[in-house]
Structure formats: structure tokens, C-alpha cells
Amino acid sequence: MPYPQEEVNIDFEILGPSEHPNEVDVLLVASRRENVEVRIGALKDAGLMARVVDVESYSTETAATLISQHLPAKPATVAVMDIGATLSTLTVIDRDRIIYTREQVFGGKQLTEELMRRYSLSQEEAERAKRNGGRGLPDGYEEEVLIPFKETMAQQVTRSLQFFFGSGQHNSVDHILVAGGCAAIPGAVELIQEETGTPTSVANPFGSMTVARRVPTQRLTEDAPALLTACGLAMRSFD
User: Fold this and answer.
1) For the segment 82-121, what is each residue's pLDDT rounded down to a tens digit?
2) Domains defined for the chain, CATH in brackets
3) What is the DSSP pairing of strand 24-32 with strand 97-105?
4) Which pLDDT belongs to residue 169?
5) Residue 92 in contact with residue 231, Cβ under 8 Å?
6) In this predicted structure, what is the pLDDT of residue 51?
7) pLDDT recorded at residue 191
8) Structure pTM?
């Protein structure tokens, strides 16, 4: 660890017996203390108390494993492409265990900023237009802005998978789950499936859950792909 030990939070979990006699495999997790404290502080400001602090990729694993159990073919190897505002993360899960993860700088902020620039919209208006497929925007939006962005999305997914295949572990995946705010862009998932030749769907971690009456179902469905990691973290409370 490239930091003094007093600046680092460390935790561990015994995974089980090792291949070596009288030894066990141990998962060791370390994070800079300030990275943990800033998140705990944000929760305190919201009047909440942190019960569990987890690694983001493991939260993704927990939620994605729940989703994959309900996919038609019950795929063994699932690639989760989480496309956020500025960062995209590929996480490959094989038989419910993470075997690969890679981040790249690409996200929905690029589309938001293009909408703001081209049509003189506020950030909130641009985000709303992005989510509803551009309804209310001038003619030419789809051909000039949306389609090129979706093609770039598909290319980013393909490129990330190629890096994974190049690692030598696998040469294919059984299913792709698209998460993050960009997953809600109409037609994006279909284009990714066409580009990669792999069954692809929107990540909805709440699809197999019973939803409380006070929760607006349509809004939850729209926001579900962006809540994948949050859902996986919340599921830790059942451990």
C-alpha cells in the first residue's frame, strides 16, 4: 500500500480452505481512510448512519448475481457494463464471482453537455431530454446527436470486452447487463446487442422484488439501472 498504515482502513474476510494444507484463503480489502470518511460524512449530513462499507465492485457483483438468476438461459459468465456520468466500468462475473474489472473514461455527461451546447438547455433539461428519447427537441436530434452517441456507447462496450478477451481468461461472455444512467437511453441496449452479437439487457435489480405501494413503480423502473450498485450495497444488510 503506497500510504502510511494510519491513513488506511483495512478489513478482511476468510473465504475458506486453501489449496495448501493448514491454510485458508483470505480476502484483504484496503482503502484510504479519507475515501471512507467522506462517504460516511455524506450519510451523516443526510441524517443516516452507515452500517456497512463495501467495495463498489462487490456491491455490483451482489446485485448482478441476483439479476442473472432470473435471466432466461441462466448464463454462467455475465459482463456488467456500468456507464455512469463520466466513468464506465466493465465487471465480468463468472459463476457468481468477479474475475475481471476495468474502468475507462466515458459516460453520459458527454451527451448531456452536447445537448446543453447545441440546444441551449440547462443541465436538468438536458438530462430529462436524454431520458425521454429527445421528445420536444428539434428535428435532427436523433440523427445528429443521439445515434452517434449510442454508436459510441456500443463501441466502448465492444472495446472493453476485447480487453477482457485479450486477458486470456475467456473468449466470450454469455450475457451483457447494461447499467448506469445511459442504460435508460431508448435503443441503446439493442444497438449494443447488435454490435457485440451477445444477448444484452438493461440491469434491473428490482425486477424480482416486491415493490411497496408507496414506491412509484414506473420511476423505480426508469432509475433501476443507475441503482445497481446501491441495491447491491443495500442487500448486504441481509448477510
Assistant:
1) 999 999 999 999 998 899 999 999 999 999 999 999 999 9
2) 1-53 (no CATH), 55-238 (3.30.420.40)
3) unpaired
4) 76
5) no
6) 85
7) 96
8) 0.86
Residue whose entry in the numeric block shows the C-alpha cell 428539434: 138
Grid coordinates given for 16: 475458506
pLDDT at 199: 96
What distance lies between CA 156 and its chain's CA centroid? 14
Residues in the chain predicted with pLDDT less than 50, given as ranges, are none
